[in-house]
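re: that chain from earlier
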Amino acid sequence: MRKIVAVLLALMLSGGICAAFAEQTQKAPDYIMEGFDGDSATRAWENNLFFSRMQEKTGISFQFRQHNSTEGWTSRKQEIAAGTDLPDVLFKASLSEKDIQDMYAAGVLIDLKPYLAEYAPDLWALLQENEAWMNAVTLPDGAIPALPGINTLQNNNMLWINTSWLKNLKLDMPASTEELTETLRRFRDGDPNRNGQKDEIPLSFLGMWELRFLGQAYGMIDNDYYVTLRDGKVTSSLMSEENRSFLTWLHQLWEENLLDHNGFNTADSLRQITDEKAAIPYGAFFSISPSTVVPAAAMDQFEVVQPFAWNGKTVYRDLLGDVIRGTFAVTSACAKPEKLVSWVNTLYTEEGARMAQYGLEGEEYVWEENGTWNWNASMETVANVFLQDHTIGEGGVLPGISDWQFQKKYANDSIRKTVEAMEKLKSVSVIPYPPVYLNGEDRARIAELQYNLSDAADRAMACFVTGDVPLDDAHWAEFCETIRKLGLEEMIQIWQKAVD
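^ sequence. v structure.
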């Protein structure tokens, strides 16, 4: 997953790639490594300084089979599952729950759990200390065929508000749905961008999926399967009175032209502003970072709106959790799996994780006297050399840990502000439902139910928001009956069985 620090930097960077690689030893590679580095990656693993540095630390070298196409990697994973031309290790593997289970059942992946305590003590300690992390990577039979990336501050979908507009209109940060509604009205009517035109979009969004993040103000944090685990019981808010009240509020915002009327039929690329001098039309929007919507010059205008309280409690949906499964696995072709487990353990240490993502102190980065760190080169070199040829963090998700405390000390106010906002949001965020492994039958049934239910539920709720369908008792009852017929209760039962 693309780290926010790199995203923000990349917006300002361009230029050619130059070489800066450590000298490689000439012995034959010890192991074959295969994996996926993301569709947009331009690095070459065989020339990347990270692997040279790891070879100096561990003595282990690799022959690389690198994939940079999602389609190509998906096809290759099918071949691997069939046992075709196996590598020794899968790195940045992007293995799904199904991939892991199928490859392990076929004997392609080996169980790494017997090796962890002795050969990966740092990872083992993390799993021992965090039961949820251990459960997330453990199959029902107790095996751990794939190791995770661990990131306690993953990207989340956050509501960003234009603080320049707040200042222009002498408004405070909204702290409730009522205050947000009034703020959006002022954005609509007060010409906050000071261009003399009525071109403001108070709240931009992309579909019902994004609007549902506002549901936390009504106590709802359901995941994409519309379920939440509360005190051991799986529930859904789809047919609840809270959801009906939430949709009623959204309809009010729509009727008052406070929501973007293109929100249900636009795409992320269509709302992006690239002109640094353009007037910003957005009062608020959902995103992982302002950089995905507005140009670099406008990023400082936006701050995160912290979640609103509901019945005296503030809670937000943790979109991704802390664990990214399936980043590293060893195949049955490997003669000495303990060597590779020991190798990857380095990435679960602060030193190793930092080297993988940022490089080495004094070479790629330096500490300033004020306690912040900065890149040890021009921004062009950072983008086109350090992030591409010296480190391995960009592109496909790494095994290991992410050092957010280090990133928070980066000498860039915008990035620090984003990280601090994410930390504050994380403190009230809850994973609606923990990561589990379903058996093949249940996994297939959930996919079928979700395909039908998700489309119908989101379309119906969007119609309530726009007023195309009135939110009266008769139509609400019809909505609930449709949801029942599409199998919501069966879905809840399957998820309940998985956690019991």
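The chain has 20 helices and 15 strands.
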